[in-house]
Amino acid sequence: MLTSPRLAIFSPEGEWEVENVGVAPDIEVEFTTKLAAQGRDPQLERAVELVLTALEANPQRRVPRPAPDPRAVREPAANGAPAPDAARY
């Protein structure tokens, strides 16, 4: 039996899309069998390099930890035992 698709898709530009084409990479990285045999992953290495460069250019803003919420502070029991968890009661 031979079948064919009944639907087709088109791009936002109004062009027909072709099946099994995929998406062109933003950055091309050569992946050779020699590198794979060495246990290296050049795609991953390049991705990590790009992320580290982006983090260096846009460092994460450090937010100081706020003071403890007084509603969350539990007082120890008079006999020195830990206070019961108020959330359970």
Features:
single chain, 89 residues, mainly alpha, elongated
| Termini Cα gap | 67 Å
Q: Look at the structure and give the mean pLDDT.
A: 81
Along the chain, the helix and strand elements come as: HH
In total, the number of strands is: 0
Helix content: 10-25%
Derived from helix and strand composition plus strand pairing, the structural class reads mainly alpha
Rg, nearest Å:
29 Å
> What is the helix tally?
2
Main sheet makeup: none
Assembly state (oligomeric): single chain
What does this structure look like?
It is built from two helices and no strands. It is an all-alpha fold and 89 residues long. It has a domain at 30-58. The model has no long low-confidence stretch (mean pLDDT 81).
Q: How would you summarize the topology of this molecule?
A:
Blueprint (H helix, E strand, L loop, with lengths): L32 H5 L4 H16 L32
Quick overview of this protein structure:
The chain is an all-alpha fold.
